[in-house]
UniProtKB/TrEMBL annotation:
<comment type="similarity">
    <text>Belongs to the peptidase S33 family.</text>
</comment>
<dbReference type="GO" id="GO:0005840">
    <property type="term" value="C:ribosome"/>
</dbReference>
<protein>
    <submittedName>
        <fullName>40S ribosomal protein S14-3-like</fullName>
    </submittedName>
</protein>
<dbReference type="InterPro" id="IPR029058">
    <property type="entry name" value="AB_hydrolase_fold"/>
</dbReference>
<keyword id="KW-0378">Hydrolase</keyword>
<dbReference type="InterPro" id="IPR051601">
    <property type="entry name" value="Serine_prot/Carboxylest_S33"/>
</dbReference>
<dbReference type="GO" id="GO:0016787">
    <property type="term" value="F:hydrolase activity"/>
</dbReference>
<feature type="domain" description="AB hydrolase-1">
    <location>
        <begin position="60"/>
        <end position="326"/>
    </location>
</feature>
<dbReference type="InterPro" id="IPR000073">
    <property type="entry name" value="AB_hydrolase_1"/>
</dbReference>
<dbReference type="Pfam" id="PF12697">
    <property type="entry name" value="Abhydrolase_6"/>
</dbReference>
């Protein structure tokens, strides 16, 4: 269906909207939630509190491995609502399906290989293709956090052209910025990927998959979350992601390090790291290193690092403590409008 929306400058434009077997996409007013597909760009959804107002600020929201944009709808609606409280401030949240994930899975033509560099380049291509202004904020969870870091690094190098500039804030939710070494991991992600590789491309039902994962010893919450990553295919269910491509992205995520970016952040960029209090992904050396970087007082010639701890939360920050996460993020984003 075609829907009339307005861009940042208030100019009407037509957005082709598709809801493919996804009734949950049809959110109630006053929020606008639209999804867009194009052979040339990533799939994405937009959330805006007041559809009839031109937006003044934009945040890109990036999910993690085997996730999708829809995982972040609830938090993004809450964040947009908390920010769009004055007549002069209207935030647009753009929730992206990264390559090999969600509705971007079926889109052809992305540059190989499937790694962090190209996943970030997809964002630059999307911004250029849609002729958007550069986002004010980029938010990434887990693997999406490293895609966000790569995006900032490439923006600083002007890899995407003059139109795509550095965001003002970059948020990394529970994602270690350096290499992820196997000895610092419990191997759960690897076990999940190996299990999914052993399964056929279609399964009888969501219930069957969840029970199968439970029988293999995975937790109920993880098994049920894996079950949400299915889509209808005839009378059966198939994956809502490209598993082989996602595995390549995971390998790149583990190998890439962005410590140099954090040690020398570009001028006027703040990189905010949110560590979940109960997350098992952080070792003491990494925590100490981040605290040291955050405590440094610069001379204004470079950006800055801030570190935040989200209490009462494991890795799934937007599920475990969305209210606490909102209390960390919202005030800083509000400061951009002042």
């Amino acid at each position: 269906m075609a829907r009339l929306v307005r861009n940042k400058h208030g100019t009407p434009c037509t957005l082709l909207t598709r809801f493919l077997n996804s009734p949950s996409s049809l959110l109630t007013q006053p929020y606008r939630n639209t999804s867009n597909r194009s052979l040339q760009t990533l799939a994405y959804e937009e959330i805006q509190v007041n559809p009839n107002k031109p937006y003044t600020h934009t945040a890109l929201v990036l999910h993690g491995l085997l996730g999708s944009a829809r995982n972040w709808r609830s938090f993004s609606r809450s964040l947009a609502s908390s920010l769009s409280t004055s007549p002069s401030s209207e935030w647009r949240m753009v929730l992206v399906d990264l390559r090999n994930h969600g509705k971007s899975t079926d889109i052809q033509g992305f540059d190989p290989p499937d790694d962090m560099v190209n996943a970030a380049k997809d964002l630059g291509d999307l911004i250029n293709f849609k002729n958007w202004d550069s986002p004010d904020v980029v938010i990434g969870h887990s693997m999406g956090g490293k895609v966000a870091l790569q995006f900032a690094q490439s923006c600083g190098n002007r890899d995407y052209g003059e139109n795509v500039k550095l965001p003002k804030q970059l948020w990394v939710f529970d994602s270690v910025p350096g290499e992820v070494k196997s000895e610092n991991s419990d191997g759960e992600v690897e076990k999940v990927l190996q299990t999914l590789q052993s399964l056929p491309s279609t399964v009888p039902s969501r219930k069957w998959l969840v029970n199968h994962m439970l029988e293999l010893g995975f937790s109920k919450s993880l098994s049920e979350w894996i079950g949400t990553n299915l889509k209808k295919s005839g009378g059966e269910e198939t994956w809502a992601f490209n598993l082989d491509g996602a595995i390549q992205m995971f390998n790149s995520y583990r190998e890439m390090s962005y410590w140099s970016l954090l040690e020398h952040p570009p001028k006027e960029l703040e990189i905010a790291i949110v560590r979940a209090e109960k997350s098992d992904r952080w070792d003491a050396d990494v925590i100490t290193r981040l605290k040291r970087l955050a405590s440094q007082e610069g001379d204004g010639s470079a950006g800055k690092i801030s570190v935040h701890v989200l209490p009462n939360s494991g890795h799934w920050v937007h599920v475990d403590n969305p209210k606490g996460l909102l209390e960390i993020v919202s005030p800083k984003l509000k400061s951009l409008a002042s």
